[in-house]
Amino acid sequence: MRRAFILAAGALLLAGCAEKEQTASGIKSDQQPFAGTNHAVFMAPSWKPGDRTSWESQLKNRTVQGQNDYVKVP
């Protein structure tokens, strides 16, 4: 009984070593975060896509206001 338990525990521990690599469907983006998207819904009105200075300004404003990506803005 004890031997079966040890074998089962060992099998469970080894099963954790067989985890597959987690990638986003093999798609990797080399695009800069300030490059923007093609969807105007995701862009602030005063932000200019591709302009790093305005992107950093928007981030600074959001930080001062206590906003983050997990807070829904009305």
UniProtKB/TrEMBL annotation:
PROSITE patterns found in the cross-reference section: PROKAR_LIPOPROTEIN (PS51257)
Source organism, top-level taxon: Bacteria
Entry protein name: Lipoprotein
